[in-house]
Amino acid sequence: MTKTTKSIETIISLCKRRGFIFPGSEIYGGLANTWDYGPLGVELKNNIKQLWWKRFIQDRDDMVGLDSGLLMNSKVWEASGHISTFTDPLVECKKCHERFREDQAEKNGSCSKDKKPHDFTEAKQFNLMLKTFLGPVESDENIVYFRPETAQGIFVNFKNIVDTTRKKLPFGVGQIGKAFRNEITPGNFIFRTREFEQMEIEYFIPEPKDEAEWEGYFEAWRGEMHEWIKSLGIKANEIHELEVPKDELAHYSKKTIDFEYDFPFGRKELYGLAYRTDFDLKSHKLDYTDQDGNKFTPHVIEPSLGVERTVLAVLLSAFNEEKDGDDVRTVLKLPNSLAPVKIAVFPLMKNKPTLVAAAEEIYHELKKRWACEFDDNGNVGKRYRRQDEIGTPYCLTIDFDTLENGDVTVRDRDTMQQERIKITELQDYFNNKF
Ligand code: ATP
């Protein structure tokens, strides 16, 4: 078996061809760096989000969930420091007026005006928050920002959550939702976009007595993140931790570890884990009173995960091209929990009504529990290929023996092994698989 190099173009083309991800506004010439999730993409994305929600919110006693608004009072962003510090330095070419991130300016070729090198201005700070106006009047007092992270929605609801859930420290709040950043250099497919989704946890801990105390919580979350990454089918050797140097830390952070993934365009941040100290709750003037009546500001450990970067890393890790005789088999070896289609059901021949009827009956029965697809198009070999390419773990074929013996062929995506299973045992069989 051979494994060919995965290029981002191969993944983009598979995503488009099979309905995972489409370029945004395509019929109107597109809108740069926007992407729409197609029928399979939305399933994959939802599976990732559901897995995260179950693992970190529902299965734990020390976590609760939240769904806060995209739009918040601008005072939130003043207090959080985003209005003053959520910026990237930008330079502008004095001739063609194109703008570049200062650290990437040199890489951006020649000026479109005269084909000579750009002539850059001094760097200026550019705020990454997207703005709009609420209400019919476009005035300064009506400016609101699309949230650039989900985190602040959690902080501003801290008191509401403590009062309503009676959670005691340490406990965490998790949220999944859209965030917007007016990125200067979006690109690399869905890696960096201006609209994206985050899965964030703010884990509140008592005021630490010493370094060891917060480090204990930090280490626990570091372990949790590796376990999560493993559950996505991403191999440990594709992930690299990078401790952000002290002078590059965000204004709120005392320690940050980036979890980097080997993308085809380089080793880049997949997730972040930060110790945010008591910065946020202090900024919002929020505190906590423990059982003994002591009032203090909790500190925060934040595991922050991007949904789209997860989708991309999952697709890249799962993508394989294998030699199969003279042919190459493209297969997405997705974990069962993430596969958009769990079981594909085939009647051996589409022009034999008895086979089709038996296949349809099994399909409708299984579909009540698992995402299933019915396919009677082309020969069975081609149907296997189509399912391999979208990561369907099991294909089930109904043939003439089914009608005689009441059993079907179940074919495994990864091993390509086939076994005969009684129809009456299919529910148990798949219960054990999923
Ligand atoms: P980067 O250094 O790549 O800009 P960041 O350090 O600014 O990322 P955070 O603010 O820590 O990112 O955001 C948490 C997570 O949100 C990131 O680890 C990433 O998964 C995701 N994320 C951030 N910005 C984007 C974006 N523009 N597009 C897609 N995902 C993003």
How would you characterize the overall build of this protein?
31% of the residues lie in helices and 29% in strands. The chain is of the alpha+beta class and 434 residues long. The strands form seven sheets. A seven-stranded mixed sheet has the order 3-10-11-17-14-13-12. Strands 21-20-22-23-24 form a five-stranded mixed sheet, sandwiched between helices. A three-stranded antiparallel sheet has the order 4-9-8. Strand 20 (343-347), helix 10 and strand 21 form a beta-alpha-beta unit. The longest helix is centred in the middle third of the chain and has 21 residues, at 211-231. The two termini are 27 Å apart. 31% of the residues are buried. The structure holds adenosine-5'-triphosphate (ATP). Adenosine-5'-triphosphate is lined by residues 181, 183, 192-193, 196, 198, 269-272, 304-306, 308-309.
